[in-house]
Amino acid sequence: MRRHLEPGPDHPISIEPKATPVRIILAGEPVLASQTHLELHEANYPPALYLPRDELDLSALVRSDHTSWCPYKGEASYYHLRRADGSLSENAVWTYEMPFPAVAAIKDALAVYPDRVDAIERD
User: Fold this and answer.
1) Is the pTM of the predicted complex or chain greater than 0.90?
2) For position 91, which CATH number holds?
3) Domain that holds residue 54
4) Tens place of pLDDT for every residue, the chain, 123 residues?
5) CB hemisphere CA count around 27 (13 angstroms)
6) Is 4 part of a structural domain of the chain?
7) How many domains does the chain have?
């Protein structure tokens, strides 16, 4: 059974809007770019950058069947990122399409695994 947990002192989560651009580089080319982003800080994990879907060119994304569960955020859906040569960086992007209320700000925003792309650049 999937549990729903609330962030708290033992597992804090904060989300900060940032007015700085982010570029996701794959095979030497920018594949996603936004003018703003959300920075999610969760417990002792490195910050995750969430890019607003409405600022992105989504043409490099290929929907994946993969999902995962976070008891604090809900079910995550995944996308592969397509390189210029057509090959895929599999499950490189995740999103929460129906996050729990405590993290509602990340609804539909996209985050990228740093080890599945060449670089995540911030200005």
Assistant:
1) yes
2) 2.170.150.40
3) 13-122
4) 788 999 999 999 999 999 999 999 999 999 999 999 999 999 999 999 999 999 999 999 999 999 999 999 999 999 999 999 999 999 999 999 999 999 999 999 999 999 999 999 998
5) 11
6) no
7) 1
